[in-house]
Amino acid sequence: MGDVAKHAGVSSQTVSRVSNGHANVDPATRQRVIDSMQALGYRPNSAARALRLGRFRTIGVIMFTLRTFGNMRTLDAIATEAAGADYSVTLIPVRAATMDQVSGAYSRLSEAAVDGVIIIFEAHLLDEAEFTLPPGLPVVVIDSNAGHQYTVVDTDQADGARQATEHLLGLGHRQVWHIAGPQTSFSAGHRVESWQRTLREAGIEPPPVLHGDWSTESGHRHGLTLGRDPEVTAIFAGNDQMALGAMRALHELGREVPGDISIVGFDDLEEAHSFWPPLTTIRQDFGEVGRQAIQHLLRKVGGEDDGGNERVTVPTRLIVRESTAPPKH
Q1: Label partner for 264 (CA 20 to 30 A): which of 37, 110, 123, 192?
Q2: Sorting pLDDT into bands at 50, 70 and 90, what band is 162?
């Protein structure tokens, strides 16, 4: 830094202000310092600065899969929001939904010098261990029942399932069948419980739930089963991909959508309006989930909260398109 200051004809303090991105430097002076840095091959030592300030400007993210639409959209929002706050993101995927795997990833992030951790924790723990991490780093959990010791951000899964079920009942359907996500999924479980509760509140006994794996293939398989039953007039699918698979199955069986069977999805994929027919679905705001997670975490990192934890629920919204209609009979 001293060499740069001498080369540029400025003080070391001015070089420090330029290297730290401070605005209180004359533009011509800033450019002269930058030119001197390039001429001398000088790069600010961010690791040394982080050690001095006790802040690394990095957020760690632990997640179980990169394959699902929701996880990718949430991760994209986290990375964008973090970059806007001048933070980078270090991602560690884990292979299995166990507390041991999560703890191991958390320890690796602690050693990698991050300021806080977001855990996208969509599945039940396979080892049934209590969700507890060593103290030290601020943590925010997405999509989980992580208890009161962590701030949790999640979509209002229950209200979304209620809206989907009530929409179909409101059209006059006397029963609503459900193609659910995997039994290991928190969000799928919340949707199943709300679907069942909504039917029972309407005086209807829920039919057996059909579990898929979020894929179009599982939706197609269950769509073939439901499409062969003449009593089925309305299906609520746990995500848009399974809804798409079910619609394909119904088309193959010669069942009209929505003439014979109405179908509602969940997520509102960017392509949902281009399904045939365009898909009625529940819109999740994955971007808002990611933004809320980063904002709460950075408040914890900055010591701006009182140390308490809360559950932040992001609303869902019914998007009505052409895949639903009143039953024929």
Answers
A1: 123
A2: very high
Asked whether residue 33 is domain-assigned, the answer is yes
Pair of tokens at residue 228:
């062969």
Other beta carbons within 10 Å of 43:
9
In a domain, 323, yes or no: no
Q: Residue holding tokens 């991050």?
A: 114
Rounded CA separation 146/128 (Å): 12
| Domain hosting residue 142, numbered range | 55-155+286-314
Please give the Cα distance from 195 to 199 (Å, whole number): 6
Q: Which residues contact 278 (CB under 8 A, 6 or more apart)?
A: 272, 321, 322, 323
- Answer positive or negative: Cα dihedral of 270, 275, 280, 281: negative
Question: Are residue 181 and residue 276 in the same domain, yes or no?
Answer: yes
Would you say residue 321 lies in a domain? no
- Collapse the DSSP code of 147 into the 3-class scheme (helix H, G, I; strand E, B; otherwise coil) and give the result: coil
Q: Who has greater pLDDT, 16 or 161? A: 161
Q: Report DSSP letters for 48-117, one per residue.
A: HHHHHHT---EEEEEES-S-SHHHHHHHHHHHHHHHHTT-EEEEEE-SSS-HHHHHHHHHHHHHTT-SEE
Query: What is the structure's pLDDT at 322?
Result: 97
Q: How far is CA 246 from CA 187, 206, 274, in A?
A: 20, 19, 15
Within 10 angstroms of residue 240's Cβ, the number of other Cβ atoms is 26
- Return the ∠ at Cα 95 (arms to 85 and 105), rounded to 5°: 45
- The rounded mean pLDDT for the chain is 87
Quote the CA–CA distance of 32 and 34 in Å, as a whole number: 5
Q: Give the distance from CA 62 to its chain's centroid.
A: 12
Q: How many CB atoms lie within 10 A of CB 238?
A: 32
3-state class (DSSP) for residue 317: strand
* Residue 60 domain flag: yes
Residue 67 has pLDDT above 90, yes or no: no
Q: State the pTM of this model.
A: 0.78
